[in-house]
Write a structure and sequence with these properties.
five-stranded mixed beta barrel; about 625 residues; 18 helices; 28 strands; eight-stranded mixed beta sheet
Length: about 625
């Protein structure tokens, strides 16, 4: 056991011993059931003139302690801020010795007089102290200083305590959601609830989570979308409906994807996708104005103006603008395959899917200002109405901000026969192994046969909108409790969890390596001179973000801090060995003076260093991970 671990264990034991002494003395703080009449610290500070000299009650967590002799100070943190507490022995008498035993992290209630110190700090002089909860753990001294940032998400309660500014993101989240509801309610939309457990996973192209209903003895699916139920309500006579809630998709995790996420879908009878554009741009403009006081946000160093109207861009026109390829002239599948091969675009099963691949590879990254991309191919739009003047395209748009999709909308398909055929095409894909293809929903087809009026439908990714409006780059920073995989003992940097908990994690995650099965390549016999070797610029880098590269089976995209002011982007083909989210916050090694190389249309500015060996007949790869205390930009010699 290290000296630090011994010190930690002794401190934890002392806290527990103090609690036992309190219980033995009949002062168990956990028997206290309330502390009424408290006033927020912010109100006392904001209205000092009103409270000066008056007795108040305040409660919160001790974040700092100092002082000596017959006087001590504590900083108490409540929901809205901090305030200094002054304890004097000549005021509180025998209770002073008890107050001196309080620890950082304890929750206390204080009754006392408001005053201002000689240094001008607004404070409360204690007259009656009360210990409300004894903290048995040790708060991190500087949570942002922890070198493994995903601990903030795993132990969000600590993150919120030590970094109270994090709360503001979630306060804004609540305001944004409330403003969206207010906007729709004012336009006459009715908020409804639809099932989360479904017998058919429909309404989107995604892999579902599967569960089992014991009584019915059937498999069920967590919803991937609520579209088909909401359109049934339009059939039933509700003209304007919406639902905001959790969706679940069994897919990869990265900076913009979490397995469960908040989505809002709305449907309006006798409307089309043009009406959905108007709703989208004015809703986001209104929400930004009411929550932020402006429509202009800064993201990734760019100014983005959310004010309506937004740009309208047909997909084929966007491809032509960027690549020069005009799919209005390329009308056959054979021609589409030929140009795809020429432009290094993945060949798909239809012309429409190839068009979509062109768009994703070349156009998406250019869409910084809010843009509606319209006229999607029918092959990738199984629920959208075909265009009258071009049956290969649909009345559909996706909205993009800063190259990220934030909304998807259709003029909804209400031709039951066409819908059946498209479902059948999706089922055929599913039978060929595409587990993201949609299932046949006979009841929904029946609903269309009853009659769906011309309808506009819109889906918005609420989490992504919140990310843009709050300036966050990871979806985990706008979710209070994002999905995280279990971790092992190496994550216990703050000593915050019990030994038994980490042993359980280890059983789930630790792979035992049989070193006898390792085979390494022979060492190079050719020598290099020191001058040539020294030209390689090996640097320590910190992973600020890591995400999967769309449409690539191998590549992860790293956004790195290399010690300079500019972020470095490096792509690495290690997707089969590591999940993107598990690498965020790691300290790695990279060569930083290689010329940029295009990979999937992205400039890769260097190389991440890995260790490769053969293990039990298969190649095994391990990233070189360094001590997190080594600063970014450190050069290796």
């Amino acid at each position: 056991m290290t000296e630090n671990q011994q010190d930690l264990n002794e401190m934890l034991q002392i806290k527990r011993q103090k609690l036992e002494e309190l219980k033995a003395a009949g002062k168990d703080p956990h028997e206290i059931v309330n502390f009424r009449g408290r006033i927020p610290s912010k109100e006392i500070k904001d209205k000092f003139d009103e409270y000066d000299g008056k007795t108040v009650r305040i409660a919160g967590r001790i974040m700092a302690k100092r002082g000596h002799g017959n006087m001590s100070f504590m900083d108490i943190q409540d929901e809205l801020g901090k305030i200094q507490i002054v304890n004097r022995k000549n005021v509180i008498g025998d209770e002073f010795s008890e107050v001196k035993k309080y620890d950082i992290g304890d929750i206390v209630g204080v009754e006392g007089k408001v005053f201002k110190t000689n240094q001008g700090e607004i404070s409360i002089e204690t007259t009656i102290p009360q210990l409300l909860t004894k903290s048995l753990q040790i708060l991190p001294e500087k949570w942002h200083g922890l070198k493994d940032p995903d601990l903030r998400y795993r132990q969000r309660y600590l993150d919120l305590i030590v970094n109270p500014e994090v709360k503001e993101v979630f306060v804004q989240r609540s305001k944004i959601i409330a403003e969206i509801r207010k906007f729709l309610d004012n336009r006459g939309f009715l908020e409804v609830d639809t099932p989360i457990l479904n017998t058919i996973a429909g309404g989107a192209t995604a892999r579902p989570f599967i569960t089992h209903h014991n009584t019915l003895d059937i498999d069920m699916y967590l919803r991937i979308a609520n579209e088909l139920y909401l359109k049934r309500l339009i059939v039933g006579g509700f003209d304007k409906v919406y639902e905001m809630g959790r969706m679940f998709r069994n897919e990869g995790m990265d900076a913009t994807h979490n397995p469960e996420f908040t989505s809002m879908e709305l449907y309006q009878a006798y409307a089309d996708y043009e009406d959905m554009m108007e709703i989208t741009e004015h809703m986001i403009e209104t929400v930004a104005t009411n929550v932020l006081g402006t429509t202009v946000i800064e993201f990734d160093g760019r100014e983005i103006d959310l004010k309506a109207p937004w740009i309208r861009l047909p997909m084929i026109e966007g491809i032509k603008n960027v690549t020069g390829v005009d799919f209005n002239q390329i009308t056959t599948y054979e021609e589409a395959v030929k140009i795809a091969k020429e432009k290094d675009v993945e060949v798909k099963e239809s012309r429409g899917e190839i068009i979509a691949e062109f768009f994703e590879k070349y156009v998406e990254e250019t869409l910084i200002q809010p843009t509606f991309v319209t006229d999607y191919p029918v092959e990738i739009s199984p629920l959208a109405k075909r265009k009258v003047d071009d049956k290969s395209l649909t009345y559909r748009f996706e909205a993009f901000i800063n190259a990220k999709e934030v909304a998807n909308a259709f003029s909804e398909l209400n031709d039951a026969a066409d819908q059946r055929q498209r479902f059948e095409a999706q089922v055929a894909k599913r039978e060929k192994g595409d587990d993201e293809a949609q299932m046949m929903d006979y009841d929904f087809v029946n609903a269309l046969e009853v009659g769906l009026p011309p309808t506009g439908g819109l889906g918005i990714g609420i989490d992504r909108i919140i990310m843009f409006l709050t300036g966050q780059h990871s979806i985990r920073d706008v979710l209070l409790f994002p999905t995280m995989k279990p971790i092992g003992l190496e994550k216990a940097e703050n000593g915050g969890l019990s030994k038994e908990t980490y042993e359980t994690y280890d059983k789930l995650t630790t792979e035992e390596i049989d070193l006898s099965k390792v085979k390494v390549e022979p060492l190079f016999e050719d020598m290099v001179d020191f001058e040539t070797f020294s030209k390689s610029d090996f640097r320590v880098v910190k992973v600020k973000n890591c995400e999967e590269v769309p449409k690539s089976k191998k590549l992860l995209k790293f956004t790195l801090d290399d010690g300079s002011e500019k972020e470095r982007v490096i792509l690495s083909g290690i997707k089969e060995y590591y999940s993107a989210e598990s690498l965020i916050g790691k300290t790695l090694l990279a060569i930083c003076n290689l010329p940029p190389r295009k990979m999937m249309g992205i400039d890769s500015e260097g190389m991440i260093i890995s260790a490769i060996c053969e293990y039990d007949g298969e190649e095994k790869l391990n990233l070189i991970m360094l001590d997190d205390n080594i600063p970014a930009g450190s050069k290796l010699y």
